Amino acid sequence: MKNKKIYYWVCDKSENSGEGQLALFFLKNLRKKYKTTEIKKPKIKNQFLSKILNYKYIIPFLGVLYCWKFFFYKKKIYYINYLPLWNFALFLLLPPNSNIGPITGGAKFSGNLNFIRKFLFPIFYKISEIIIIFRKFNLVFSTDLLKKYLYKRTIKKSTFNFIISNFKFSNKKTKDKNLDFLIYYRNHPNKKKFFPVYLIKNLVKLGFSVNVVGNKLNITNIINHGFLNKKKLIKLQKRARYTIFSEENLYSIFTLECIKNNVLILIDKSNNSKLTFFKKRFVKIDYQNLKELRKLNYLYKNRL
Known about the structure:
Strand content: 15-25%
Strand order of the largest sheet: 7-6-5-8-9-10
Largest sheet: 6 strands, parallel
Helix content: 25-40%
Shape: globular
Number of strands: 10
Mean pLDDT: 86
Order of helices and strands: EHEHHEHEHHHHEHEEHEHEEHH
Number of helices: 13
Oligomer: single chain
Radius of gyration: 21 Å
């Protein structure tokens, strides 16, 4: 029975972003235990000021200020996102006895910020870890990507893979699979390096139907659907046979939803060691071997 009321701050509830999807998923589980009331963001008429305050690196600290307001009202508070482990200032400035949503971070990045992420972030992780332990925050992580940066005693007290642990899967097989590939693409400057464009081009050359959601991918003979709401996305997943895994975060929400809807995930053999969960749902293949790619339709019929 939901007999406790909480007030929560969330920076992003969009279905089109990873942070937004994580927040929605966390809220869904939270509402099973509590009556929830969102701490509303201020309405600002000045467009320039509104743009600044809603900037992704500013709005989390605006949320901290609002959490302090409700702390003084003696309300139970949840701060849900953004919560990257590198941002030690957030963990330091939140009010006492705050509850926090899943901690994120540890995904692979490339580009100009890669140097900072490689050398400075591990230091920031340790600072955050010390603050979190001292302030006795709940230690729930969205994935296990940060495990290697944590002390053993912290690992013992922590819960990892929040998304996977709370995701409900069905063994019910989906019929009418008439799309070969459904792929999620984000034109992110620090992530697109990991996206195998050459693989998509080879799939098109071999005659596979390729459907893309998210940002537009400029490859001839593919179908770009853009960003879709959850219902439309699930409909496409139920029609798709394959997708490809996200190298910067293997068990993304999109990947888990695909597994739920009986979509097999193509993974290059070089990444086989990264598999931990749902190994039977992945097809290990040499991305550059056209002979193996040609056999995919045959493989699908024999895997499900």
